[in-house]
Specification:
Elements (H helix, E strand, L loop, with lengths): L7 H8 L3 E6 L4 H10 L3 E5 L7 H11 L5 E5 L5 H9 L4 E4 L5 H10 L25 H8 L1 E6 L2 H5 L1 H5 L6 E4 L1 H7 L9 H16 L4 E4 L3 H9 L4 E6 H16 L2
Parallel strand pairs: 1-2, 1-8, 2-3, 3-4, 4-5, 5-6, 6-7, 7-8
Helix pairs in contact: 2-3, 4-5
The chain binds 3-hydroxypyruvic acid and magnesium ion.
């Protein structure tokens, strides 16, 4: 019998250690482990905006586990059954998109908890329990689960106090792409009005005592966000890196 697996990402979050991450949308373990070996603290295995599902994400998580990087899954939606499936295959940290209010936050928390605190279904020999080898899994699992909720609309930020007050919410994550759309600046997350809104949101979330994360491929802006108090930032995405680098190479040879 073995003990519960420590959630390194959550531990660092609680210690206030800043962490940088990568967004993995090319759904293969090769890319996940590449990001891990490159040295990112965490990697989001995206299934919201990527052609993926729990079967594919499992291979990506297994690949990442050979590195020092923490695997985080983003389910396509705040769905109890999907969340259960990702937990059962061994994800400990989840980032749930489009949380709009306290009741949706509560629903997400309950999906990650066994009764009586929640409604997670029970599987005794899942991969999460090392197929029944983790003796204290049911008792200890909650403290190693890290639930991050994405706030990406005006509505969500209006309800940020309610969302943050739900017990079991470990962190909040700003989605600049969707937030920009919600503010009327579709495709322009770098617009000054969006940045101003985000800055205020960061201040609000920090005042509520919650760790806050964000996604930004603009590295100067990402550094500013760190200075403003953001705890974890995704600063790279596989498709973006490949496309950018490919175009740069081609431009050396073709006008
Ligand atoms: C967004 O920017 O909307 C995202 O979901 C990515 O962080
Ligand atoms: Mg989004």
């Amino acid at each position: 019998m073995v003990g519960i697996i420590e959630n390194k990402f959550k531990k660092k979050l609680l210690l206030g250690e800043k962490q940088i991450g990568a967004w993995n949308t090319i759904c293969t373990g090769s890319v996940s482990e590449l990001f891990g070996y490159a040295g990112f603290d965490w990697v989001v295995i995206d299934t919201e905006h990527a052609p993926s599902d729990p079967v594919v994400a499992l291979g990506q998580l297994q690949a990442l586990e050979a590195t020092n990087s923490s695997g985080i899954v983003r389910p396509a939606t705040n769905d109890t059954v999907l969340i259960k499936r990702f937990l059962d295959i061994g994800f400990q940290t989840l980032i749930i998109p489009f949380i709009q209010d306290g009741s949706e936050a509560k629903q997400a928390v309950e999906a990650t908890r066994y009764p009586p605190e929640g409604i997670r279904g029970v599987a005794g020999t899942s991969r999460a329990t090392k197929y029944g080898s983790i003796s204290n899994y049911f008792k200890e699992v909650t403290k190693e689960i890290c639930l991050v909720l994405q706030l990406e609309t005006i509505e969500a930020l209006k309800n940020v106090e309610d969302i943050a007050s739900i017990n079991g919410v470990d962190g909040l994550f700003i989605g600049p792409g969707d937030l920009a759309a919600s503010l009327g600046y579709l495709g322009n997350p770098g617009h000054p009005e969006v940045k101003k809104f985000i800055k205020d949101a960061i201040i609000k979330i920090k005042a509520l005592g919650k760790p806050v994360g964000i996604f930004s491929l603009d590295l100067d802006y990402a550094k500013e966000c760190f200075d403003d108090g953001v705890d974890f930032i995704a600063v790279a995405m596989d498709t973006n890196l490949l496309m950018k680098q490919s175009k740069q190479i081609i431009s050396r040879f073709k006008k």
